[in-house]
Amino acid sequence: MKIAMWSGPRNLSTAMMYSFAARGDCAAWDEPFYAPYLAATGMDHPLAEEIVAAHEADPEKVAARCAGPIPDGKKHFYMKHMPHHMLPGFPLDWAKGCVNVHLIRHPARVIASYAAKRGRVTLEDIGFPQQLRLWQALPGPVVDSADIRRNPREMLQKICTEIGLDFTESMLHWPPGPRPYDGVWARHWYGAVHASTGFAEAEGPLPELPAELAPLLAQALPIYEEMRAQALAG
């Protein structure tokens, strides 16, 4: 099985990648289209030049690998994707051969977390419109990361049942530290998950955003609410 997990930034996406890789039967690929996205847009992201130099930046070649054999002799292939990386003209036919899952998070939490890591944040940066379009084009289960954090075992069981994969207890824990399949951007973004050995506890109240970010929240919230209404019950 090939699993394409679509998630915006500052979600539970890296922990989910570690969870599926911890099964032992899943190869993992971390944001395959990040380098092509940066190469095409010239976006000023942390470590951008290093990312483009270290990873395949041709979207056609990345798509061919997504559509190709499952690597490392594994039975399944878990691909962590970000919707905003899929620029117009980037190949997407490969995803029709995948089980597509859509991971969401309340935009107030996404905005607060993203702003803390990068400072400037736009609607395009956090990928809500792009995720809605992808979900409409590539239907599949919607999962709210808040539900996973509240009850990881129950939600992972539900995800596995929904996609036709056996759940294993090994998905709930992993050793601390980086992984060989991490992108080179991990040292900037993955500090918390590298310190983890499992899913973090449920989050508290929503963060209060500064006034200048209120319009961004107002744009993203209806998209989140539309997808949240279709999410697997937590």
TrEMBL record:
GO MF terms held by the record: transaminase activity
Organism: [Roseibacterium] beibuensis
InterPro entries: Class-IV_PLP-Dep_Aminotrnsfr, P-loop_NTPase
Top-level taxon of the source organism: Bacteria
Record PANTHER family: AMINO-ACID AMINOTRANSFERASE (PTHR42743), AMINODEOXYCHORISMATE LYASE (PTHR42743:SF11)
Pfam family, one: Sulfotransfer_5
The entry's keywords: Amino-acid biosynthesis, Aminotransferase, Branched-chain amino acid biosynthesis, Transferase
The keyword Iron-sulfur is assigned to this record: no
Keyword presence, Amino-acid biosynthesis: yes
Protein name: Branched chain amino acid aminotransferase
SUPFAM superfamilies tied to this protein: P-loop containing nucleoside triphosphate hydrolases
UniProt feature coiled coil, ranges: none
